[in-house]
């Protein structure tokens, strides 16, 4: 694979200007651990300057059709640079090249859908005249931008999850201040360059890089920001919720996703799907399959198939097209996963595949004989580990799935419509995927969790609901 021609260092993007700072953070190639570029570290004054630039930009009209044009152009430019940007994802995330190309394609689609939604923003007619005494009135609602939106994003899907905030944010008529994850900020910076080229008015998108704990504090303290949209860990999500008062907050947080494989399921198909969705992006996906519940009648055969599919996965250089699983984001994360698996084994779990770490790599790992209180079941692993358990009764498995503080998505393999309907009613998640795993997502669908998995929905149309205010206008004649 060709090396991308990245610059040595990148600046902040504020009010349409790129500003280099003296203080820098390195971005590592997660496979080689070499520095690929440096990013500037924003200070409080930069945060405040970006808020001023964002507010100023709101004073210049930016019509829905203009937003449509800019977002469409950005989507096209992203696709034109697909290979280059995928190459950056390979390096900064350690994501295998096939998946990285897939992420760029999805990101372009997210922007395209956002562009389309920009033309569909509309309010409603409200029949106030039907209330006694209001016969001489008429009312409509208008959707107005919330104003300045701060978007804070995680390391694992650093381009598409940024597009899920910037796309709807701009489409809804807002200005956006983006704070991408420090480990993987380069793709977000390249996206800002693309928006510049696409003709986005100055100040509508600002990018601040640096340590989240510091910049996050400056962002939440700034009272001129109208809304926060955050994707990341529940810990940080709670911090943001706790420090933003009555302002709007959308939170897309973690999960320990479950998938049920019922006795009538396609055993081989579900086992292959579960293996793929447990381990893609080294399990660093919020809807990654972490807990599988298999009906007792098919358990042995399912497990055999899943172990075979898992052992066929190749771990290695993410730039190599034959690689399925690359490095984790950092060695300390691989060590954490290793500790959790070792602890589970010491508590009685059985290793069916994997269980070994080599530096920043952790092998795809299947555990059985698990207990719900083990960390690998109770917590979010965010690594290539899956716990496979059994069940006998429908109500029992629904209870097992719901025995979680999270509730983002779940999967259920069955052709039994009655069970599927019951599961749809009883399973506590934002999305239930029938005949596929928890790991299914297309970018225009409503996506978001219940319980500790967050509040608010993404998918451009749904995110734009969150990023607009519904204003009522009443006319009296
Ligand atoms: N629900 C979803 O759609 C979704 C998608 C992807 C990832 N995630 C979750 O994200 C987590 C993994 O990502 P991560 O490790 O990058 O998460 P993280 O919470 O550590 O970081 C996310 C972002 O928050 C910033 N940040 C850190 N401290 C902050 C603070 N005090 N105030 C404000 N911002 C701060 C970081 O710099 C980063 O940009 C997992 O829990 C995963 O499930 C959820
Ligand atoms: O990590 C969670 C992501 O939202 C999943 S996806 O990449 O959007 O499918």
From TrEMBL:
Gene3D superfamilies named among the record's database cross-references: Aldehyde Dehydrogenase, Chain A, domain 1 (3.40.605.10), Aldehyde Dehydrogenase, Chain A, domain 2 (3.40.309.10)
The organism's place on the tree of life at top rank = Bacteria
Q: Pfam families, from UniProt?
A: Aldedh
Which key words tag this protein in UniProt? Oxidoreductase
Domain Aldehyde dehydrogenase as annotated: residue spans: 18-472
**Segment forming the signal sequence:** none
Write down the InterPro entries for this protein, in alphabetical order.
Ald_DH/histidinol_DH, Ald_DH_C, Ald_DH_N, Aldehyde_DH_dom, ALDH-related_metabolic_enz
What does the similarity note say?
Belongs to the aldehyde dehydrogenase family.
Name of the protein this chain belongs to: Aldehyde dehydrogenase family protein
Origin organism of this chain? Oceanobacillus locisalsi
């Amino acid at each position: 694979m060709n090396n991308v021609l990245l610059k040595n260092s990148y600046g902040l993007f504020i009010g349409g200007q790129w500003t280099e700072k003296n203080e820098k953070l390195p971005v590592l190639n997660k496979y080689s651990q070499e520095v690929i570029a440096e990013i500037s570290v924003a200070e409080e004054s930069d945060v405040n300057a970006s808020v001023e630039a964002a507010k100023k930009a709101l004073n210049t009209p930016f019509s829905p059709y203009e937003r449509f044009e800019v977002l469409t152009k950005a989507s096209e430019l992203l696709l034109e640079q697909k290979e280059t940007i995928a190459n950056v994802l390979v390096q900064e995330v350690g994501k295998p090249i096939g998946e990285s190309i897939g992420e760029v394609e999805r990101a372009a689609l997210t922007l395209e859908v956002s562009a389309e939604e920009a033309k569909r923003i509309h309010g409603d007619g409200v029949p106030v005249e039907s209330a006694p005494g209001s016969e001489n009135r008429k009312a409509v609602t208008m959707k107005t931008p919330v104003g300045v939106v701060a978007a804070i994003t995680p390391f694992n899907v650093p381009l598409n999850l940024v597009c899920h905030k910037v796309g709807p944010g701009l489409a809804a008529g807002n200005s956006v201040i983006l704070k991408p994850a420090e480990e993987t900020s380069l793709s977000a910076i390249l996206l800002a360059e693309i928006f510049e080229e696409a003709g986005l008015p100055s100040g509508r998108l600002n990018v601040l890089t640096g340590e989240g704990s510091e910049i996050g504090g400056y962002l939440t303290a700034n009272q001129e920001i109208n809304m926060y949209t955050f994707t990341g860990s529940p810990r940080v999500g709670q911090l943001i919720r706790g420090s933003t008062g009555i302002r709007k907050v959308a939170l897309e947080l973690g999960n320990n996703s479950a998938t049920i494989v019922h006795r009538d399921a396609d055993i081989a198909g579900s086992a292959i799907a579960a293996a793929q969705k447990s381990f893609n992006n080294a399990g660093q996906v919020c809807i990654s399959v972490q807990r599988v519940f298999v009906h007792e009648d098919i358990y042995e055969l399912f497990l055999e198939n899943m172990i075979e599919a898992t052992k066929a996965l190749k771990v290695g250089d993410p730039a190599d097209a034959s690689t399925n699983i690359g490095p984790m984001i950092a060695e300390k994360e691989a060590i954490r996963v290793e500790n959790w698996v070792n602890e589970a084994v010491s508590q009685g779990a059985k290793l069916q595949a994997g269980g070994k770490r080599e530096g920043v790599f952790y092998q795809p790992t299947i555990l059985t004989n698990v207990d719900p209180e083990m960390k690998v079941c109770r917590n979010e692993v965010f690594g290539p580990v899956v716990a496979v358990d059994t069940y006998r009764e429908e109500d029992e498995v629904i209870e097992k799935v719901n025995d979680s503080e999270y509730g983002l998505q779940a999967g259920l393999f069955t052709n039994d419509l009655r069970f599927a309907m019951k599961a749809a009613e009883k399973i506590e998640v934002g999305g239930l995927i029938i005949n596929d795993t928890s790991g299914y997502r297309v970018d225009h669908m409503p996506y978001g969790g219940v319980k500790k998995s967050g509040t608010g929905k993404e998918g451009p149309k749904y995110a734009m609901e969150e990023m607009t205010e519904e204003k009522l206008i009443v006319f009296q004649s």
